[in-house]
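Action item from last meeting closed. Structure (318 res):
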């Protein structure tokens, strides 16, 4: 079995295992009247504060100790979904230009209902479905030949998560320092990143619509002299969601205000990235398992060769 198929099989196995465990737990709680969660009106504080399905799954389970998996596959364009290269549609200095699959694996400790700490590390695979590349870019071809189908344990991180209700908004804030070890960014010269992200969502009316935004800052450190590397990235992503039923929802996000500062720029100079949009279908298999297949494109220049494919998943176990 190839490394890519093995990795995918492992991820699917984790998904099915977590789903089976969730179903088993729910069944047990239905039959056991003495279980606190089964008592009428007994709702965990975290689920009172956060009702959005995606935010619940991304912030972790209700257990004191748990495992969580954040899986992300970023593929090629709609025009060439099987190609090894991934168009850099926003011209981001820190963007990865080859298809990749990541699975951040974490051990989470929930020290009270609204705060938790996760120690995690990533499994990173470059171009999981490609053994060759067609490109006229010698740098991209060199990068592909060095990293194709490499599976590495990469990017260890520590994630602090806080849940809150502020002015009617559901708020999930995460602070994440990361040691960069994935092959694409490591070879470019990146060594660490420091990320602060806060997502605010609020229901709009009583018909399943909600809106909000994610505010995020990412800073990088380096060990090479490449002046074109991103130093700071400030991001504002407006979000709209529509709940169809308990399983499916529609979601769109705009990379509306994204500013990058490379090492060659003055401290007060930033470059605005092209506005992009993603659109996808959220699939809630249970409280702790959420899938999100999606596309990303430039609203002002919609073309199949500049529309990328992706899928992400949040899976929480025990």
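Sequence:
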């Amino acid at each position: 079995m190839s490394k890519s198929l093995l990795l995918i099989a492992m991820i699917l196995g984790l998904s099915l295992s977590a789903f089976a465990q969730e179903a088993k737990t729910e069944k047990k709680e239905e039959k056991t009247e003495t279980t606190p969660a089964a008592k009428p009106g007994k709702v965990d504080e975290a689920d009172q504060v956060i009702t959005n399905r995606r935010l619940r799954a991304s912030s972790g389970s209700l257990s004191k100790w748990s495992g969580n998996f954040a899986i992300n596959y970023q593929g090629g364009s709609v025009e060439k979904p099987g190609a090894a290269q991934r168009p850099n549609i926003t011209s981001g200095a820190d963007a990865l230009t080859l298809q990749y699959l990541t699975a951040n694996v974490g051990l989470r400790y929930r020290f009270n209902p609204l705060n938790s700490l996760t120690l995690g590390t990533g499994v990173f695979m470059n171009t999981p479905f490609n053994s060759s590349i067609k490109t006229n870019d010698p740098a991209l071809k060199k990068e592909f030949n060095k990293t194709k189908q490499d599976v590495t344990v990469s990017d260890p991180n520590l994630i602090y998560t806080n849940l809150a209700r502020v002015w009617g908004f559901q708020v999930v804030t995460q602070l994440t320092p990361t040691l960069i070890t994935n092959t694409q960014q490591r070879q470019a010269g990146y060594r660490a990143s420091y990320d602060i992200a806060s997502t605010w969502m609020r229901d709009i009316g009583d018909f399943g619509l909600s809106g909000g935004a994610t505010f995020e800052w990412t800073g990088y450190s380096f060990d090479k002299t490449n002046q074109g590397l991103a130093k700071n990235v400030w991001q504002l992503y407006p979000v709209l969601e529509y709940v169809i039923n308990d399983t499916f929802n529609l979601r769109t996000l705009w990379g509306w205000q994204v500013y990058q500062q490379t090492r060659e720029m003055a401290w007060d100079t930033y470059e605005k990235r092209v506005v992009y949009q993603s659109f996808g279908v959220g699939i809630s298999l249970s409280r702790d398992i959420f899938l999100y297949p999606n596309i990303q494109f430039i609203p002002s220049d919609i073309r199949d060769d500049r529309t990328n494919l992706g899928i992400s998943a949040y899976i929480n176990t025990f």
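Note appended to the action item: The chain has a mean pLDDT of 86.
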